[in-house]
Amino acid sequence: MKIIASFLIPALMLFSSTDALIPITVKGKRFIKPNSDASTQGEVFFIKGIDYQPGGSSGYDSSSGEDALSDPDTCYRDAYAFQQLGINTLRIYSLNPDSNHDECMTIFNNAGIYLILDVNSGEQGASLNRADPASSYNSGYLSRVFKFIEAFKNYPNVLGFFSGNEVINDESNYAEISPNYIRAVQRDMKQYIAKHSNRTIPVGYSAADSVTLRRATFEYLQCFIDGDEDDSSRSDFFGLNSYEWCSGTSNWANSGFENLNSTLSNTTLPLFFSEFGCNKNLPRTFDEVSDGLFGGLVNTFSGGLVYEYTEEPSHYGVVDLNDDGSITYKEDFDNLKNEFANSSLPTILEDDVEEADIVTCNADIVTDIYPSFGANFTIPEQPKEIADLIENGVDTDNVGKLLDDVEAKKSNYTIYDHSSNEVESATVRFEASNEINTQSGVVVSSKAEPSSSSSVQAAASTSEESSTAGSSSSSGDGVMNIYVPTYGIWSLIMLVVSYAI
Ligand SMILES: *[C@@H]1O[C@H](CO)[C@@H](O)[C@H](O)[C@H]1NC(C)=O
Ligand SMILES: *[C@@H]1O[C@H](CO)[C@@H](O)[C@H](O)[C@H]1NC(C)=O
Ligand SMILES: *[C@@H]1O[C@H](CO)[C@@H](O)[C@H](O)[C@H]1NC(C)=O
Ligand SMILES: *[C@@H]1O[C@H](CO)[C@@H](O)[C@H](O)[C@H]1NC(C)=O
Ligand SMILES: *[C@@H]1O[C@H](CO)[C@@H](O)[C@H](O)[C@H]1NC(C)=O
Ligand SMILES: *[C@@H]1O[C@H](CO)[C@@H](O)[C@H](O)[C@H]1NC(C)=O
Questions:
Q1: Which residues form the signal peptide (predicted)?
Q2: Of 174, 167, 228, 164, which is closest to residue 370 (Cα–Cα)?
Q3: Would you say the CB of residue 180 lies under 6 angstroms from ligand 5?
């Protein structure tokens, strides 16, 4: 059996009119970046990423009202540095669902940067407690998760959400008791997104760096319970935290990468490193990028995120964050930049990506890999309070959106290269194609979907040409024939709708 395109159709149908960077979708084991011309197929998207948490996770304090995406000057500074590094994706571990992220999210969007966000934080009640998942799985926790989804669901550059990070690990009996609670949280998140978001946002998990445990976790999360293709507790992607390859001393065979490639080659979902970059040998040369991740692993993995951007006490940074808010590139920064620049990635067209098989869950497959894994496929029931939150939506007025008046400019925080010379022209580049919805160029004849007035307004304010198409597509029922040069997404939606009907 194959996973039919039902996963993609809602994603395209419900495309919001203010979308800018085109949202990434999932097909089989790959992420797909749709083409900006809707009549042309998309391409496989490889993550060239970095983990981003200036100040460290312990620096996150919800009572401050601030987080990694609340200071636009920081975001201007770092968006420039990200473009120098050549990265396209960030992971952020702790964010405040009550803070305003519009300006930073717009800066990153316009700069061409996607984000994969952990919906949890280390604060009390803001994640599953791996030692006691049953009591921490409650409506207080889930209402924070749902507020988080509300805060980020309307940004097109959100690539996905992590439901958990290293919750299942090899300490104590955590691998025994937590797995089905991860699935419960994923089920609830995906149900919430299906009901309250205008597109399907992928939800997945980030696994600890333990060779047998991570493979058991992968098998546990990639399958469909009872072979039911609507099983919403399944992961849409799988991130591994991997520190097996140390710069300078590791290679394909002795690093464990060869083993990763052979044991995970049958994956039915996108795999990537949610953290990588062993720091045993400093400065790091990141040869695992060209020789591993974008070398031998490229048929199995879809890239990864280096741990991490800023230097913190654990010494994994590629920049030093100075007291005055300036940053200084470390040698690791230049090395990583060269590695990303020197890696040649294959171009894979969407049509050449196979739909994945529906793998039916089987506890024996999991426990054969890790005997004390709690391969329990009876997922905890959804408490009524959580069902009500999904039905009615969580109470929040913090629903983020992209802004259309954010300019490309230089941060007022200084950037120094690794010889401590100021980088003079550190102005972020905004690509015009990221700033507006440019998916275009389909001629269709179909029933029009009535569209909401707010999306028509948003379209008009984003692009002048778009207002015509926006109003014609909002003109009501009936059959219409339109050619839309810059606002083709509505045409695409109609094409999909007509196909579905
Ligand atoms: C998204 O969907 C909601 C309904 O769930 C609608 O009110 C809103 O206008 C849509 N937003 C955009 C930007 O299309
Ligand atoms: C992958 O699938 C093939 C064909 O079904 C099978 O022979 C092989 O054992 C599988 N590999 C792993 C690591 O599961
Ligand atoms: C990694 O696995 C893929 C898929 O099985 C295979 O095509 C590729 O040759 C492997 N890479 C190496 C370097 O062995
Ligand atoms: C590629 O790597 C070489 C070292 O092998 C380096 O000198 C060069 O600058 C890199 N090229 C780019 C475009 O970064
Ligand atoms: C599996 O999980 C369900 C739901 O939490 C629980 O009721 C059941 O006791 C668990 N089964 C085992 C064997 O632990
Ligand atoms: C940068 O500007 C912000 C306001 O936009 C201000 O709060 C901050 O102190 C400024 N930083 C520097 C280094 O000038």
A1: 1-20
A2: 174
A3: yes
**pLDDT, average across residues 364-386:** 98
CATH superfamily of 47-392: Glycosidases (3.20.20.80)
Structure tokens at 260: 């990763």
Per residue in 203-258, pLDDT tens? 999 999 999 999 999 999 999 999 999 999 999 999 999 999 999 999 999 999 99
Q: Which residue has the tokens 């920081």?
A: 74
Site to probe by mutation for ligand 3, drawn from 300, 302, 348 as the one with most ligand atoms within 8 Å of Cβ, is 300
The string of DSSP letters for 356-407 reads PB-PBP-HHHHHHH-TT------PPPPPHHHHHHHHH----S------S-PP
Task: Give residue 13 CA to ligand 2 midpoint distance, Å.
Answer: 35
The C-alpha atoms of residue 147 and residue 433 are separated, in whole angstroms, by: 30
Q: What is the pTM of this model?
A: 0.85
Ligand number nearest CA of 261 is 3
Query: Where do the structural domains in the chain lie, given as residue ranges?
Result: 1-46+440-501, 47-392
> For atom 6 of ligand 3, which residue has the closest CA?
299
Cα separation, 429 vs 256, whole angstroms: 38
Q: Is 385 a catalytic residue?
A: no
Distance 138 CA to ligand 1 centre (A): 28
Q: Is the pLDDT of residue 123 over 90?
A: yes
Check if 275 is active-site: yes
pLDDT tens digits for 292-308?
A: 999 999 999 999 999 99
Nearest ligand 5 atom to alpha carbon 376 = 1
Q: Give CA 463 to chain center in angstroms.
A: 27
